[in-house]
Amino acid sequence: MKFAKYQPTVTPDLPDRQWPNQRLVKAPLWVSVDLRDGNQALANPMTVEQKLKLWHELVKMGFKTIEVGFPSASQVEFDFTRRLIEENLIPEDVTIQVLVQAREHLIKRTYEALQGVKQAVVHVYNTTSIVQRERVFEKSKAEIKAMAEQGALWVKNYAQAAQQQSPVSQFIFQYSPESFSQTETAYAVEVCEAVMDVWLPTPENPCILNLPATVESTSPNRFADQVEYFIRHLPNRASALISIHTHNDRGCAVAAAELALLAGADRIEGTLLGNGERTGNMDIVTLAMNLYSEGIDPELNLSNPDEWMAVVEEVTQIKTHMRHPWVGEVVYTAYSGSHQDAIRKCLLKQQADEPWQVAYLPIDPKDVGRDYEAVIRVNSQSGKAGAAFVLEQEYGLKLPKWLQIDFAPVAQALAEKQGGVISHKNLYQAFLIHYALTEKKPNISNYQIGKAGEMETIRLDYEQQILEGRGKGTLCALCDAWQNSTGQVVDVLDYAEHAMHEAMDVGKNARAMAYVLLDVDGQKKIGLAMAEDTVSAMLLAVLKGLN
Ligand code: KIV
Ligand code: ZN
C-alpha cells in the first residue's frame, strides 16, 4: 500500500480548544438535503412526482428547512420548485432552500424559480480549497474570494429585484465555502467575512455560513478544531448561523457533525440514511437517534421507519442495509445465547416508568416501531434463553430452568436442520411435539382427592385401572399411587405451574400449564401438561412424565 503518496490535511493549531469540554444538550436546526445533494448522487435522479412524495414525508417528519434542489441546473429541479410554490404545498412553518453556484445567469434563473415564494434560503457557493484553487480554477486566493463576494452581491441584488416583483417574498442568504475542510481555515474565515460584508446581516436577521466537509479528509476531532477556530475568529459571529455539511468518505460524517456541534455549530445539513455523493452525506437519522438515545428530544419524528424508509428506498432505489444504525432490520436482534439471556432478564425486570436499562438494546425497539418478536431470533448459535424468551413472550409459557436446558438442543437441532432462523411458530410446534402436548393421552376422566388428617389421598381411573395412594400433598399421593400399582419409586424433583390466558393450538379450554421433573427409579423424567384447571394439569403432567 502506497501510503507515502498521501499527506495529512492541514488543520489549525488550537491548543486551547474548548469543544472537548462541551456536551450535546439539544437538537440542532436540521436541514434535509435529500432532494438536492441526495438526489444529485443518484444514477436515476428523482422525477418531480418522486420528489413530491419525499417532500411530503420530510414535512411529516418535522423538517423545518428542506433544500429542494438546484433549480438552475435542470428543468426537473426548476419545475419541482415551481410546483411547491404554485400549488401552495409549503406549510407556513417550513422554509425551502435552493442551491446555486456563484454565477450570475444561474442566480437569475434561481430567483425565477422562486417567484412568489413566501420564504426561501438562497444558498450560494464557490469552492475555496487548495486543490480546487490551484488545479481546477487556477485562481489565487484573492480571485476566489472575489468570486464569493461577487456571488453574494448577485444573490443580494436579484433578491431585491424579486422582492420588488413579489413583496411577500422573504429571502435568507446562505454561503458555503465548498470544501471548507480542505481549505486553510483562516482563509475560509476571510472569505466568509467578505461575504458577510456584502450581505450585512444582523443578529436579528442573520445569514447562514455553511461549512462543508465536501470530501471528508481528516478525523472528526480535527474537523471540530477547524469549526471551533472558524467560529472563534469570525468577526460578527452573532450575525451568522453556523451550519455544518459533512460527507462520509472516512465513515465519520456523523461523528464529525457531532463534534462540530460541540465546537459551536447551530445547524446540520444531511440526508435520511446518509444517501449522497460517493459514501454519502451525514445521516440525519443516526445523529438524531444518537441524541434521542441520550434522552434529548431530536425534534424530528422518526418513530415510523417502516413508512419513511419505504419512501426513501423507493425514490432512491437504494435498499437500507440490515445493520444500518437504529433502523436496520436486525439491529435489535440477538442471535447469541448469552445476549439473548441478558436481554430476556432485563426485559422481564424493566418497568414502564423507569429509565431504559436493557443490556444490548440501546433503546426500546418499540420506539421505532419494532416489536419484541424481532428482538430475539433463535438460530443454531442461540442458547437456552432465546427459545425460552420466545415461548414466554409469544406463547405465555414460563419454562423452568431445567426445562430450558432440556429444550435447548431440540431448538438447536431444528435450527441446524432448517439452516437459519426458526420462526416462532415452528419453535412452538417443536415444543408441543417434543413434550407430547398435542397428544390426547393419558386420559384421566375420573379422580377423587381427599384429606386424611395431614395427608392427602387420591383415587384415579387410569388406563382401565384404579390407582390409589396417599402422601403429603396431591403430588406425593399420586407418586405413591403409581408406586403401589407399578412398584417404581417416584420422586418429584421440581414442579412448576402457571395460569394461561389462552391455550394455543392445543386443548382450546386449557387454562393451566404444569411442568414436572421426576426421578423414576433413578432416571430423570419430564412431564408437561395443559389442562382446564391446575389440579388436572398437575396430575396429567406427572402421568405424562411417568409415561
Ligand atoms: O458537499 C458540499 O460541499 C455541498 C455544497 C454545495 C454545500 O454539497
Ligand atoms: Zn454535499
Report a brief summary of the structure.
This protein is an alpha/beta fold and 547 residues long. 39% of the residues lie in helices and 18% in strands.
Summarize model confidence as the mean pLDDT: 94
List all distinct small molecules, including ions and cofactors, that are bound in this structure: 3-methyl-2-oxobutanoic acid, zinc ion
Q: For the largest beta sheet, what order do the strands appear in spatially?
A: 1-2-3-4-5-6-7-8
Radius of gyration: 34 Å
Give a description of the structure:
By secondary structure, the protein is an alpha/beta fold. Helix 2 packs antiparallel against helix 11 (305-316), helix 7 (185-199) crosses helix 8 (220-233) and helix 13 packs across helix 14. It has 17 helices and 14 strands. It has helices at residues 34-40, 48-61, 75-86, 104-113, 130-137, 141-165, 185-199, 220-233, 253-262, 284-292, 305-316, 337-349, 384-395, 401-418, 424-434, 474-486, 534-546; strands at residues 29-32, 65-69, 95-101, 119-127, 170-178, 207-213, 240-246, 267-270, 447-452, 455-462, 465-471, 490-499, 512-520, 523-531. An 8-stranded parallel barrel has the order 1-2-3-4-5-6-7-8, surrounded by 8 helices. The chain has 3 domains: 23-300, TIM Barrel (Alpha-Beta Barrel), CATH 3.20.20.70; 333-435, Helix Hairpins (Orthogonal Bundle); 444-546, Alpha-isopropylmalate synthase LeuA, regulatory domain (Double Stranded RNA Binding Domain). The structure holds 3-methyl-2-oxobutanoic acid and zinc ion (ZN). Zinc ion binds next to loops. Its EC number is 2.3.3.13. InterPro entries: 2-isopropylmalate_synth_dimer, AIPM/Hcit_synth_CS, Aldolase_TIM, IPM_Synthase, LeuA-like_post-cat, LeuA_allosteric_dom_sf, LeuA_N_DRE-TIM, PYR_CT. Its main location: cytoplasm. Catalyzes the condensation of the acetyl group of acetyl-CoA with 3-methyl-2-oxobutanoate (2-ketoisovalerate) to form 3-carboxy-3-hydroxy-4-methylpentanoate (2-isopropylmalate).
